Amino acid sequence: LPGGVAILRAVFSALKIDTMRVATGALRAGLLFDLVGRIRHEDVRDRSVLALVKRCAVDEAQASRVCETALNLLEMVSADWGLEGEEPAQMLGWAAQLHECGLMVAYTQYHKHGEYIIRNVNLPGFSQQEKQLLAVMVRAHRRKFPLGEIKSQPQRWAKQALRLAILLRIAVTLNRGRADIGLEQLDVRVGKNSIELILPSDWLDFQPLTKADLLTEAEYLSTLGYSLTVSSKPVP
Fold first, then answer.
1. Is the pTM of this model over 0.85?
2. How far apart are CA 55 and CA 12, in angstroms?
C-alpha cells in the first residue's frame, strides 16, 4: 500500500492530475480476455462485435454483403491509400457488420443512433480509441461526413478513418438493394483524392436507384475534396 501511494503521488505530481475516478472494469480483466483469445487464436473483439450484432437484431445477411464488398474494395486500394495491414481491414469489417445497429432505435438518423450505441456499450477487447474510431465510421457511413469527429481521431488514424469511411459508404451504396449485387467484376482505382468505380457494362442500367445514390455520394465526397466517378467495362 505505501508503495502504491508513493507511485500514485508521483504520477499525480508529474502529470499535474487533480482527481481520479474509479473504473468499473479492471486492467487485469481486459488482459485476461485478450490472453485467452490469443491462446485460442481468436480475437475477443470478434466475439464482442458478434454479440452486439445479435443484441441489436442486425440483418446479418445484409451486413455480410456490405462487409464483403467493403473488404474487396479495401484489397484493391490498400497500397495506394496506405491502408495495408490487418488493423484497417479489421476496423472496416467490424464497422460494416455494425453499420445498421442503430436501426434498433429508429430508422431516422439510425447512423447517429449506431454511433451512440457503440460509444456507450461494453465491448470487451476494444480500447477506448478503437471504440471511438468504430463509432465514427458507423456515423460516417451515410449522409454528411462528421469531419470534426474524424479529425479528432488520433493522428495515425485520422486520414485512414476518412478513407475507410469512404469505402464503407460505397459498399453500402452498392448494396442498397439488400440482395446479391453480382459484382464479381467490380474494380476500383484511386488517386490521392479520387475514386473511380469500374462496373460491368450495363450493370447500372438495371440498378437505377443505385446509380442515383452514387451521384448523391459523389456530391457528398466533393465536399471533402474527393471525386467519385463511375465507368464501365465489357463483361468477359
1. no
2. 40
